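USER: Note each token:
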Amino acid sequence: MMDINQIREYLPHRYPFLLVDRVAELDLEGKSIRAYKNVSINEPFFNGHFPEHPIMPGVLIIEAMAQAAGILGFKMMNMKPSDGTLYYFVGSDKLRFRQPVVPGDQLQLEAKYLSNKRSIWKFECKAIVDGKEVCSAEIICAERKI
């Protein structure tokens, strides 16, 4: 549905912080998205987390979910960062980690719109590997004009 070039139009992030590789499904009526991050041993964070037992840092899993939610929010508003709006990750509720993410995993990122009040957006997010939920959270983003 969206390749990396299209994703770069909706996310201002760039290497090494762009954490969405592909959007497989975008349902604007159902207000949901399914995207992917391919986890490779070549990721720079694996040099230090942890060299003998590489595990994707949890904060980056949360960031990947937030980026997928950001794409959904931009698509729902029919806007892009180039239109002068950004989403800032401002918090999470109900955060849970269930198992580690390691090199070779494909992280499936799911986000569903929950609410929007006074430029504060809330999304229900999940990260899944091989059909198993590895992380879930309600992600809160603030819409800001730049």
